[in-house]
Amino acid sequence: MVTLDDRLLGEKLQNYCSSSEDEGDRDGNDSDDGGGKRGKSTSKFIPETELNAPGSSSGFTENTGPKGVIGDWRRFKQLENEKRDEQDKEKKALIKKLTMSCRSYLDDEEAKKQEQEAQEKVEDEFFDAEDEFFKEYRAKLMHQMQQRLLNTPRFGKQVDLTRENFTNSIDDENKNVTIIVHVFEQSAVGCKVMNNCFQCLAEQYPYVKFCRIQASEAQLSHNFVKNGCPALLVYRGGELLSSFISITNKLGDDFVASDVESLLQESGYLSAAECDKNTTVRDSQIQKSNQSDTDED
Description:
Blueprint: H1 4-9, E1 16-18, H2 22-31, E2 44-46, H3 48-51, H4 66-101, H5 105-150, E3 159-160, H6 166-171, E4 178-184, H7 191-204, E5 209-214, H8 222-227, E6 231-236, E7 239-244, H9 248-251, H10 257-267, H11 281-296
Parallel strand pairs: 3-5, 4-5
Antiparallel strand pairs: 1-2, 4-6, 6-7
Helix pairs in contact: 7-10, 10-11
């Protein structure tokens, strides 16, 4: 039997004969000097393969020789191959995933083109709907203004105001009538031109009350007479809506009726519904200019 001491000391166990009764035999031989019978030897041969077998009773196995090194190397190569196969599977799966998700340059260009076409289609539909909405809104607004103008007095010319009738001309007028007053002074630059423009606009917009009053007649301050004229005051329903002081700073000294018309239209105080003719002053001037150019050619 292999003992723990033999394994720790590394004793050579090949062809080892074990006898657990050697000492007992010797003692027996000593005691049988008187002619007793010698006991039978129980020696047993234990092969090296059984001593080094994995299933030995000690349960301890080790092999540090060439065979052990070769076995470890084979196990290492086996694990390495298994790891390489696993990595190859992961790479193939990743390549397959990228192949399914990636697109070529032509695919990207086609997708961008389709996206742009879809966006343009949506914008066209939106603007078409917006145009329809504004058309309906404009038509409805024009109808309301036309209904309002049915009961509105017509003027058609410029009205001169004085200090005495100024307040009554503003407060007692129809609440739907827009009143535009030109505050002028004969010595102020641009006032004479504005009077002529007002006369033209009064004929073009008969439902708007165009008036004028002299600053000195209204007893305005000397500073206003000198620096504020020409000025425009806009009233409706007895309330002052807006005022344009020293309007030549905005229009310049050389302006025409269409410039004043554009200013009032942009401010919302003149509308096409209030125009008595099919064309506004500005459109008429454009047509005259085009006609003159044609005649010269």
